[in-house]
């Protein structure tokens, strides 16, 4: 109506806490992981405020080609991707982070439909809220329902609210899952989808050892700080007494299984107290804490993964150097 005011940023943002159990899981998972025969910490805990900020720095590193390659594909093909969805479809993003790359698709949706509802799902509430407010300030035609949750809790929330959607899973985050685990997770994504919905999935491709190991162990040491921040998070949140100088970062390409393996390695024999857990953890010199896998795929393996999840690859785009792929997956008929 004439003279009506545009909705404010606050009016266009809904923040949902869908994973209230997350804080207590950290202590339990740290105890379980550091008392296991092979020590491990889950990569889901990388993304506190400090970790999220460090990951944004990683994305700008010269060695970390993934972000630039994926962004180049999205910029070249955003209109094609958006053309396949209706004007009532929401953009739902798993692990949204700063949503920097997502802006390309939001802009394409605004060109095509004039407005869009964006549903970011992220484990870091601070990053989620900051990125949502930045998007709303920049794009008047966007409404956001932001879901503070890890992936599975976010999917449970989506299943309770069926609506037309284009699901985004960017950054090759599928690589953090084992191959069987990735298929199971994608079946969960498929369960939220109806006919006409689609999934846009960024997947890193297999390449040389030198290029892969440099991407996860940069010369400036930012990835090392990101990995070691897990120990600092234990110090901050659980009263840990880790001396970060007594540990080092390691990233190795395991060609046999097709993954980069990321660990924190003890530089010497030592014991570390964690006050909140009433736990002392012994480390031998050279003993590792496994923190992350990053699986890499061939195009044929991506096709196989999609079929195992009840979907098929409708379109695939590669960057100019064929290092990275963006795949448009659609549900197979029931």
Report on this structure.
This protein has 334 residues and is α/β, with parallel strands linked by helices. It has a domain at 59-208 and 297-331: Rossmann fold, CATH 3.40.50. The chain is 37% helix and 26% strand. The chain is built from ten helices and 13 strands. It has helices spanning 22-34, 49-59, 65-83, 102-113, 125-138, 151-159, 179-191, 209-215, 222-238, 299-308; strands at residues 13-17, 90-94, 116-122, 142-148, 165-169, 198-204, 247-254, 259-266, 270-274, 279-283, 288-295, 311-318, 324-331. The strands form three sheets. An eight-stranded mixed β-sheet has the order 1-4-3-2-5-6-13-12, sandwiched between helices. Strands 7-8-11 form a three-stranded antiparallel β-sheet. α2 (49-59) runs antiparallel to α9 and α3 packs parallel to α4 (102-113). The radius of gyration is 20 Å and the shape is globular. The chain starts with 12 loop residues before the first strand and ends with a strand. Residues 1-5 have low confidence and may be disordered.
């Amino acid at each position: 109506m004439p003279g009506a005011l545009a909705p404010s940023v606050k009016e266009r943002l809904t923040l949902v806490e869908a994973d209230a159990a997350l804080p207590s899981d950290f202590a339990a998972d740290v105890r379980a992981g550091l008392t296991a025969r092979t020590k491990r910490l889950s990569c889901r805990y990388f993304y506190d405020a400090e970790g999220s900020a460090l990951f944004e720095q990683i994305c700008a590193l010269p060695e970390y080609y993934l972000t630039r390659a994926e962004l180049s594909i999205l910029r070249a093909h955003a209109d094609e991707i958006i053309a396949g969805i209706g004007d009532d479809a929401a953009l739902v993003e798993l692990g949204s982070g700063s949503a920097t790359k997502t802006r390309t698709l939001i802009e394409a949706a605004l060109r095509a439909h004039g407005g869009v509802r964006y549903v970011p799902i992220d484990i870091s509430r601070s990053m989620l809220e900051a990125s949502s407010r930045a998007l709303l300030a920049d794009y008047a035609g966007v409404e956001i329902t932001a879901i503070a949750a890890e992936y599975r809790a976010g999917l449970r929330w989506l299943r309770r609210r069926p609506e037309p959607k284009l699901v985004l899973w960017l950054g090759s985050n599928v690589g953090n899952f084992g191959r069987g685990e990735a298929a199971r997770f994608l079946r969960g994504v498929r369960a939220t989808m109806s006919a006409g919905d689609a999934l846009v999935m960024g997947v890193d491709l297999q390449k040389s050892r030198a290029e892969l190991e440099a991407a996860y162990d940069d010369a400036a040491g930012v990835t090392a700080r990101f990995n070691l921040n897990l120990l600092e998070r234990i110090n901050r949140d659980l009263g840990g007494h880790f001396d970060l100088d007594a540990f080092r970062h390691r990233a190795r390409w395991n060609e046999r299984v097709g993954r980069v393996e990321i660990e924190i390695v003890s530089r010497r024999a030592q014991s570390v107290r964690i006050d909140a857990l009433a736990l002392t953890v012994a480390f031998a010199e050279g003993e590792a804490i496994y923190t992350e896998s990053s699986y890499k795929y061939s195009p044929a393996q991506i096709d196989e993964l999609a079929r195992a999840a009840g979907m098929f690859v409708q379109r695939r785009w590669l960057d100019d150097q064929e290092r990275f792929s963006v795949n448009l997956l659609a549900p197979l008929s029931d």
